[in-house]
């Protein structure tokens, strides 16, 4: 499997993210925990890559490594041709967390403006950008509202707007819709695809939902725990244009089946 | 309106208890006066009465207790006596008194307003010093591990020393370097008020969750930006909670600081009252201090509500 992937994998030249033999071991009171072991992966510009696997498989940890929020203990990782930490300092990505994590004392507009203030955008440009990204996530007119005045789904949209505000080419999303109900989630998935299509960003997306991963991704990375590692990488044959009912198509069901098999195989390994 | 009823019930209950306690506390004095006026007391001689409790005396002479509530120098004054004294030493003294503000242009040094003002000045300056010191220490503790390990234990130890023991020394030491007047009292106030602010602010500045801090890291924000845009706003509710405690502690500190100085203030008033057996004066100064404390805490609460509403946090 690993050889097959290496053969089809692109060279690091056109890769935005490139991981080789990435290891991350946490030292805990109960001994070392291998959160990641020997992870090889390249992500090309404009791809939508999902990471799926049971909890403890290292999918979030890998995303945090890319973001420079965790430091790998072995292997190499480059983001935009730099180390992950350099990429973080050059503000190479927008990050969306599991919870919206809006600051409650700031309005929606104020929250979206936060990264712009920190990164020192000129005042006039800030307002223009806030208006533009709020429009993009369908929250125009909510700029002056406080987070508690919005529903969970709207808050999460605001947090996506916040990650988009400073125009990083890379968007990292850690189970952003995990806490939302199915109906809201479906709509946000659709909107996210449209957003990806319009902005041409590279997206790394962590999820534990098989339909979500299959529906959104151009590539699905299946991971398994103890030690956290990649067990399968699936290129999606689905077209870029994806109506919601594509989920009833034969290809969709086939990919979903393969993801499920991959997840199951990871479990049998133990 | 509905909340007024339980409050009134409690107040009335306390007043009733107080009125009931007055004849018991003042029995010896009341009965002596009655005896001088010609009444026969049970038991008849002072020697027999000496070792009996006030309760026993009051119960054995129920008909002779009429004067209990109007003694000139009672052990426990009746509520209306305290109320009359408060009226006399505030409104009456200032409006009608020769030394009052109406006739002399400045507050009378016999009035609780004058003494309350002195205490208020010391309280507010001490509160200001204490709060600023507390906030600065908390900022240091949160940002420096060395300070976290070294300052906190001392801050805790500082509060275990009884302030009444420390206050005279602070005043003497400061006097010997030429500092007197308002500042020594403010220092004692600050000594009491910085502590709740340190504890509250350390908790508040550490209130942001890991995700909030991670978000700042993804922006590659500087420590200063994390402080001003995340830690400080997150700490505001904690700050106000501790400021309420701090201002009450400041008032206590100011009063304790006035005891050894004896240059005006509610504390000086209380001590003078106790020197001359003027319990009515002590109680009225006590009530003045309580009203002042309630007022100060209310002002902080008002500022808290306004601030939190402006921050959109209080809904």
TrEMBL record, chain A:
UniProt GO molecular function: ATP binding; ATP hydrolysis activity
Alphabetical list of SMART domains matching this protein: AAA (SM00382)
Domain ABC transporter: 19-246
UniProt keywords, alphabetically: ATP-binding, Nucleotide-binding, Transport
Record-linked InterPro entries: AAA+_ATPase, ABC_transporter-like_ATP-bd, ABC_transporter-like_CS, ABC_transporter_ATP-bind, P-loop_NTPase
Recorded family membership: Belongs to the ABC transporter superfamily.
Name of this chain's protein: ABC-type nitrate/sulfonate/bicarbonate transport system, ATPase component
Naturally occurring in which organism (per UniProt): Wenxinia marina DSM 24838
Lineage: Bacteria, Pseudomonadati, Pseudomonadota, Alphaproteobacteria, Rhodobacterales
From TrEMBL, chain B:
Pfam families in alphabetical order: BPD_transp_1 (PF00528)
Taxonomic lineage of the native organism: Bacteria, Pseudomonadati, Pseudomonadota, Alphaproteobacteria, Rhodobacterales
Name the record gives this protein: ABC-type nitrate/sulfonate/bicarbonate transport system, permease component
Bilayer topology annotation: Multi-pass membrane protein
Domain ABC transmembrane type-1: 116-304
UniProt source species: Wenxinia marina DSM 24838
UniProt record similarity statement: Belongs to the binding-protein-dependent transport system permease family.
Entry keyword annotation includes Iron: no
One GO-annotated biological process of the protein: transmembrane transport
Coiled-coil parts of chain: none
Keywords recorded for this protein, A-Z: Cell membrane, Membrane, Transmembrane, Transmembrane helix, Transport
Compartment(s) where it occurs, according to its Swiss-Prot or TrEMBL record: Cell membrane
Oxidoreductase is among the record's keywords: no
A GO-annotated cellular component: plasma membrane
Primary location class: membrane
Membrane-spanning intervals of the chain: 112-142, 154-176, 182-202, 238-260, 280-301
């Amino acid at each position: 499997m690993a050889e097959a992937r290496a053969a089809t994998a692109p060279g690091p030249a056109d890769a935005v993210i490139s991981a080789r033999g990435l290891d991350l071991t946490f030292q805990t009171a109960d001994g070392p925990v291998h959160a990641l072991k020997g992870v090889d992966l390249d992500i090309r510009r404009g791809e939508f890559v999902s990471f799926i696997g049971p909890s403890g498989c290292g999918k979030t940890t890998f995303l945090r490594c890319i973001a420079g929020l965790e430091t790998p203990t072995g292997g190499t990782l480059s983001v935009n041709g730099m180390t992950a930490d350099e990429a973080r300092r050059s503000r190479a990505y927008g990050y969306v967390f599991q919870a919206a994590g809006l600051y409650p004392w700031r309005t929606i507009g104020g929250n979206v403006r936060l990264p712009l203030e920190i990164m020192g955008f000129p005042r006039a440009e800030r307002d223009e950008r806030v208006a533009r990204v709020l429009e993009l996530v369908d929250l125009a007119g909510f700029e002056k509202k406080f987070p508690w005045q919005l529903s969970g789904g709207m808050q999460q949209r605001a947090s996506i707007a916040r990650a988009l505000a400073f125009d990083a080419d890379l968007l990292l999303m850690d189970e952003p819709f995990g806490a939302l109900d199915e109906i809201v989630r479906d709509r946000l998935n659709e909107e996210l695809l449209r957003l990806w299509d319009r902005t041409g960003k590279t997206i790394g997306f962590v999820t534990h939902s098989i339909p979500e991963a299959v529906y959104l991704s151009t590539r699905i990375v299946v991971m398994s725990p103890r030690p956290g590692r990649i067990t399968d990488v699936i290129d999606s044959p689905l077209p870029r244009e994806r109506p919601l009912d594509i989920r009833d198509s034969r290809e969709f069901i086939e990919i979903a089946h393969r993801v499920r098999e991959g997840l199951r195989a990871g479990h049998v390994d133990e | 309106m509905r909340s007024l009823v339980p409050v009134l019930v409690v107040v009335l209950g306390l007043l009733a208890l107080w009125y009931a306690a007055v004849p018991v506390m003042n029995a010896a004095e009341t009965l002596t006066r009655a005896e001088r006026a010609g009444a026969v007391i049970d038991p008849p001689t002072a020697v027999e009465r000496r070792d009996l409790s006030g309760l026993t005396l009051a119960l054995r002479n129920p008909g002779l207790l009429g004067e209990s509530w109007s003694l000139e120098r009672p052990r426990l004054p009746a509520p209306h006596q305290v109320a009359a004294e408060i009226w006399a030493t505030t409104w009456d003294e200032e409006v009608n008194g020769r030394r009052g503000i109406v006739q002399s242009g400045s507050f009378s040094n016999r009035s609780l307003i004058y003494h309350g003002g002195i205490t208020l000045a010391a309280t507010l300056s001490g509160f200001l010093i204490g709060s600023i010191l507390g906030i600065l220490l908390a900022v240091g503790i949160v940002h420096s591990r060395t300070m976290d390990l070294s300052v906190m234990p001392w801050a805790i130890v500082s509060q275990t020393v009884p302030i009444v023991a420390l206050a005279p020394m602070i005043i003497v030491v400061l006097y010997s370097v030429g500092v007197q007047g308002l500042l020594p009292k403010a220092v004692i106030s600050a000594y009491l008020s910085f502590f709740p602010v340190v504890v509250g602010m350390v908790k508040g500045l550490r209130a942001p969750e890991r995700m909030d801090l991670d978000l700042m890291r993804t922006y590659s924000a500087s420590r200063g930006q994390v402080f001003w845009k995340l830690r400080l706003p997150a700490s505001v509710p904690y700050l106000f909670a501790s400021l309420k405690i701090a201002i009450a502690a400041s008032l206590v500190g100011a009063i304790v600081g006035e005891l050894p100085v004896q240059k005006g203030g509610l504390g000086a008033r209380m001590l003078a009252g106790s020197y001359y057996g003027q319990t009515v004066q002590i109680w009225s100064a006590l009530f003045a201090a309580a009203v002042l404390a309630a007022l100060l805490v209310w002002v902080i609460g008002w500022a808290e509500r306004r601030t939190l509403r402006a921050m959109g946090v209080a809904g």
